[in-house]
Design goal:
With 244 residues, the chain is mainly α. Helices cover 77% and strands 2% of the residues. It folds into two domains: 87 residues, Winged helix-like DNA-binding domain superfamily/Winged helix DNA-binding domain (Arc Repressor Mutant, subunit A); 144 residues, GntR ligand-binding domain-like (Four Helix Bundle (Hemerythrin (Met), subunit A), Up-down Bundle). It has a two-stranded antiparallel sheet.
C-alpha cells in the first residue's frame, strides 16, 4: 500500500484521469466515498484549488477540472510507486513461505549439477561465451556497487550462459528446471543483501578458471560459490530467528 497521503493523491488523480467529463468538487466527493474516503464537497473544492496551484489540474470554467501534463505525469509516478509497493509485498509473502531447509535443498541440488557444468564450461567455452560471461559479471558488480536496483537478472544470465557453454543439454535442462521458480533468484539476492554478501566476487573466480580452461579449478570455484550461498541462507535465518 501507498502511504495515506500518496494514496489519497493517487485516488484523486485517478478519478480525474479516468473521467470522460471534467470533474467538479461534487463529483469528486461522491467518487471518493466509493473508495471509502468520506470527504465533503467543500474539502474536495479546496483540494482541487490546491491542484490548480500546483499545476496538476486546469479549470474549465464551471465545468470542472482536467489533468494537465504535469498532473498526468504525477499520476503515472504514483501509479508506478503503487505497483512497486504491491510487488514488494508479494515478494515478502513469498519469502515468508520459504524455509531455510527448502532453499538449502535447492542449493545442494544446484551444487551437484553446477559443479559439473563449470568443469565442462572450462573445457568447451568459446571466446565469445567467455566475453559474454564477463559482461554479466561486471554488470552485476556495477549494479551492486552503485545500488542500481537488483542484480538477480544478471545472476540468472551468468549461470544460464555458463550452462550453455558446458555443451551438455541434459545438465543444462536440469538447471532450467530448477530455475523455473521465478522467485528463487530475487529471494537469494535479498538474503545476500541482508547478510552483506557479494556474489560477483564468486562469479569472477569461476570465470577466471573457465578462462584458463582449468576444469578442476572451475569446479572448486563453483562449489565454493554454492557453499557461500548456503552459508548466507543459514546466516539469514539465524538472524531472523534471533530477532523474533
Amino acid at each position: 500500500m501507498l502511504i495515506e497521503k500518496d494514496r489519497q493523491e493517487y485516488l484523486i488523480l485517478f478519478i480525474i484521469n479516468q473521467s470522460e467529463i471534467p470533474v467538479g468538487s461534487g463529483h469528486l466527493s461522491r467518487e471518493l466515498k466509493n473508495y471509502g474516503w468520506d470527504v465533503s464537497e467543500a474539502t474536495t473544492g479546496r483540494i482541487l484549488a490546491q491542484y490548480d496551484s500546483s499545476g496538476f489540474t486546469s479549470k474549465l470554467g464551471y465545468q470542472g477540472r482536467r489533468l494537465t501534463a504535469a498532473g498526468f505525469a504525477r499520476f503515472k509516478e504514483l501509479e508506478e510507486k503503487k505497483v512497486r509497493t504491491e510487488q514488494g509485498q508479494e515478494f515478502f509473502k513469498v519469502l515468508e513461505t520459504r524455509s531455510s531447509e527448502e532453499l538449502i535443498d535447492i542449493l545442494v541440488a544446484r551444487r551437484a549439477i553446477e559443479r559439473e557444468l563449470a568443469r565442462l564450461a572450462a573445457i568447451h567455452a568459446t571466446g565469445d561465451e567467455i566475453k559474454e560471461l564477463w559482461h554479466f559479471q561486471r554488470l552485476q558488480q556495477e549494479r551492486v556497487a552503485h545500488a542500481r536496483g537488483g542484480a538477480a537478472e544478471q545472476d540468472v544470465a551468468f549461470h544460464r550462459i555458463l550452462a550453455k557453454a558446458s555443451r551438455n543439454k541434459v545438465l543444462e535442462g536440469a538447471m532450467e528446471l530448477i530455475r523455473q521458480d521465478g522467485q528463487l533468484a530475487p529471494v537469494l539476492e535479498y538474503i545476500r543483501k541482508e547478510v552483506h554478501s557479494v556474489v560477483s566476487v564468486d562469479h569472477a573466480n569461476i570465470l577466471k578458471a573457465i578462462e584458463q580452461h582449468d576444469p578442476d579449478k572451475a569446479e572448486r570455484a563453483m562449489v565454493d560459490h554454492i557453499d557461500n550461498l548456503i552459508k548466507d541462507v543459514k546466516k539469514y535465518w539465524n538472524k531472523v530467528e534471533s530477532n523474533k
